[in-house]
Amino acid sequence: MVVETVATAVWAMFPAYIPNNVAVLAGGGRPIDAGKTWNDGKRVLGDGKTWRGTAFGTAAGVVVALLLNQLHPVVDGVTAFDLPVFPLHAAVALAFGAMLGDITASFLKRRTGRERGASFPGVDQLDFVVMALLLTAVVATGWFFETFTLPVVAAVVVLTPLLHVGTNAIAYALGLKDEPW
Question: How far is 89 from 95, CA to CA, in rounded Å?
């Protein structure tokens, strides 16, 4: 039961785990906030949140979901798990929700005086999860509640910070990120 819950959590969240990593690789270009400042005199989001990164990140998450759908029969035949198949609207909501969560965290970082890349414990690890889950609950309600049971959500909340810290450390070691968080 625990292994199936963890497998379901990772499988169901994979389209949300990928977008921000792809955005780091494919980002650059025009910032979403167009260089504008908020009424506090600080940038709304900063140069790290770009239209290109958001588009490529979202697209990558959707592609991952579609690939998982193709792999589903093989994985289903090898395991006894009942892993979810992603309807397109759920895939888009998970991927775009993850990007939107990261954008929201950037806004919060600027408002709290944190610079680009500064650590924001808790928020850095779960921002994309919260928004991906919320958006998916709204856009693909039935699929969401069938897939994201309470044990699965609990597994996501526990596993995600561990995966986030690990993947960021790897990206930092490879020179893809300027900071290891």
Answer: 10
8 Å CB contact between 103 and 49: yes
Residue 181: what pLDDT?
65
Q: Could you state, in order of their start, the residue ranges of all structural domains in the chain?
A: 2-173
Q: Are 60 and 18 in contact (CB under 8 A)?
A: yes
User: In this predicted structure, what is the pLDDT of residue 5?
Assistant: 94
Long-range contacts of 84-89 (CB under 8 A, 24+ apart): 84/8, 84/11, 84/12, 84/143, 84/146, 84/147, 86/15, 87/140, 87/143, 88/62, 89/139, 89/140
Task: Look at residue 121 in the predicted model and tell me its pLDDT.
Answer: 64
Query: Two tokens at 43?
Result: 């940038």
The model's pTM: 0.87
The stretches in the chain having pLDDT less than 50 are none
- C-alpha dist (Å) from residue 59 to 30, 104, 137, 138, 161: 18, 19, 20, 20, 23
